[in-house]
């Protein structure tokens, strides 16, 4: 089953810069006219808004992000692979006649190209999740390093599968102003989520599945992971697949050409 197209690469990735400059000039004018008792709080609030735009995974402050699908399907997305969990996850998905998009890390894909090709051969999607997954610093990368992370990841995955990804997920969901220019260059659309269980860090399978189950509904984009150190990701995915079946929900892969 395929959902309608929701693929929207950024159209004006540099628009944030003139808007930022204009806002700061306006705040300076307010401070000059009415005093910095008013101007300083406005300045701090504007900086807080800019930081929120980086750290909030669903923020559209710097560019578009897909957080929900139209229609009745559910999009399963699995981050951080390939890993030792990948084949087990593929077998689980096959057993439930389900499809998912695997957001892969370029250097991990280069180390396990056979797994990447197997994901594609079994009919699943492959998305770009950066080249090196710089988890602690992705939010603060400058334009040159950000461009490398995104475009190197794109080249690595395309070189393995013969097909360039069309979806991108920011590392930890953090998206600074420099993400969207390389996304536009590569024709990538950014994907968020609206159902998550913190499965990358939480080891309690029942708790993770229950958190995700609370948001399982038509149009959900589910954030899952593989390869976590707690080793519970396959059991968590199995639990989510069971909840989907119990609710009568089916998985979809959005069609970017639709």
Q: What would you say this structure looks like, in words?
A:
Helices cover 44% and strands 12% of the residues. It has 258 residues and is of the alpha/beta class. The strands form three sheets. A five-stranded parallel beta sheet has the order 4-3-2-8-7. The longest helix is centred in the first third of the chain and has 20 residues, at 36-55. It starts with a strand and ends with a strand. The mean pLDDT is 95.
Fill in the keyword field for this structure.
258 residues; alpha/beta; two-stranded parallel sheet; 9 strands; 44% helix
Side by side, the strands of the main sheet go 4-3-2-8-7
Number of helices: 9
Q: What Rg is obtained from the alpha carbons, in whole angstroms?
A: 20 Å
Class by helix and strand content?
Answer: alpha/beta
Strand content: 5-15%
The arrangement of helices and strands along the chain is: EHHEHEHHEHEHEEHEHE
If you average the pLDDT, what whole number results?
A: 95
Q: What is the first-to-last residue Cα distance? A: 13 Å
Helix content: 40-55%
Largest sheet: 5 strands, parallel
Give start-end ranges of low-pLDDT stretches.
Answer: none
Shape category: globular
Beta strand count: 9
């Amino acid at each position: 089953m395929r959902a309608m197209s929701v693929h929207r690469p950024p159209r004006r990735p540099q628009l944030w810069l003139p808007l930022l400059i204009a806002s700061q000039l306006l705040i300076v004018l307010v401070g000059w006219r009415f005093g910095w008792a008013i101007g300083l709080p406005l300045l701090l609030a504007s900086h807080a808004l800019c930081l929120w735009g980086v750290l909030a995974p669903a923020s559209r402050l710097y560019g578009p992000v897909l957080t929900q699908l139209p229609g009745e399907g559910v999009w399963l997305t699995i981050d951080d692979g390939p890993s030792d969990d990948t084949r087990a996850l593929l077998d689980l998905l096959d057993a439930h006649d389900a499809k998912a998009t695997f957001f892969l890390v370029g250097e991990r894909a280069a180390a396990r190209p056979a797994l990447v090709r197997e994901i594609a051969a079994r009919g699943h999607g492959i998305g770009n999740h950066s080249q090196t997954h710089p988890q602690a610093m992705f939010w603060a990368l400058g334009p040159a390093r950000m461009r490398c992370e995104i475009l190197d990841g794109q080249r690595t995955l395309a070189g393995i599968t013969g097909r360039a990804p069309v979806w991108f997920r920011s590392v930890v969901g953090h998206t600074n102003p420099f993400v969207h220019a390389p996304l536009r260059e590569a024709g990538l659309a950014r994907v968020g989520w609206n159902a998550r269980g913190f499965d990358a860090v939480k080891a309690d399978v029942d708790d993770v599945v229950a958190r995700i189950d609370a948001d399982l509904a038509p149009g959900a984009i589910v954030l899952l992971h593989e390869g976590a150190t707690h080793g519970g990701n396959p059991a968590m995915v199995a639990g989510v697949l069971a909840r989907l079946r119990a609710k009568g929900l089916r998985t979809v892969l959005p069609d970017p050409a639709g």
